[in-house]
Backbone:
């Protein structure tokens, strides 16, 4: 399907460009979101008549987005989640979670504006993009931790997770400790048994 873009669409084109896209993409996204019009003769004429107004509206929206971007860019939000010792979350952090966290600190952001390719599934600090306008992006810092204290440590660049190798080494050390402890108990028990047997023998000899 051929459509007329009503705003800049990444990897497609600029406002006013006539581009060919898949029918499903047009029907499910571009047309209902009013980001494009079907490229009919009527719509082409309508667009040309309203081009000046659309460009002025876009310019105003871009300036507002740039103003917000100056404040939003570099903002850090903390999300507290449960996770394993290795840092794997029991769940994940989605675009909706990040949008809600940004809204809580004073920015009106929709989940669709969060540029997250896949949900965050591990502890740590992740830089995430936010699209405020087709031509204006910001970057925020998402700090996923198990506690506020842990988040502060991560913000300083510390690694709060236990690496797989360290965890395995700790498990081996623990197993060795308990095995050695058991051997000592067995040896002590054997020594006590031997002493008891010796005492019994001595008593029998006396009698």
Residues:
């Amino acid at each position: 399907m051929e459509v007329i873009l009503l705003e800049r669409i990444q990897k497609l084109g600029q406002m006013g460009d006539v581009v060919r896209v898949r029918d499903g993409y047009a029907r499910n996204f571009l047309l209902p979101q009013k980001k494009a019009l079907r490229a009919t003769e009527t719509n082409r004429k309508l667009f040309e008549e309203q081009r000046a107004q659309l460009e002025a509206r876009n310019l105003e929206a871009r300036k507002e987005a740039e103003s917000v971007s100056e404040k939003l860019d570099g903002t850090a939000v903390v999300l507290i989640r449960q996770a394993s010792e290795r840092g794997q979350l029991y769940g994940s952090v989605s675009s909706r979670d990040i949008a809600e966290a940004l809204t809580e600190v004073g920015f009106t952001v929709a989940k669709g504006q969060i540029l997250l390719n896949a949900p965050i599934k591990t502890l740590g600090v992740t830089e995430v993009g936010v699209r405020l306008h087709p031509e204006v992006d910001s970057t925020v810092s998402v700090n996923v931790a198990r506690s506020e204290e842990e988040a502060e440590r991560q913000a300083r660049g510390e690694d709060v997770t236990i690496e797989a190798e360290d965890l395995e080494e700790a498990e081996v050390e623990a197993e060795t400790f308990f095995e050695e402890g058991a051997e000592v108990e067995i040896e002590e028990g054997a020594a006590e048994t031997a002493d008891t047997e010796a005492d019994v023998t001595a008593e029998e000899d006396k009698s």
Remarks:
- The beta strands are 2-5, 18-20, 36-38, 76-80, 88-93, 114-115, 120-122, 124-133, 136-145.
- The longest helix spans residues 164-206.
- The CA atoms of residues 9 and 134 lie 7 Å apart.
- The chain has a mean pLDDT of 86.
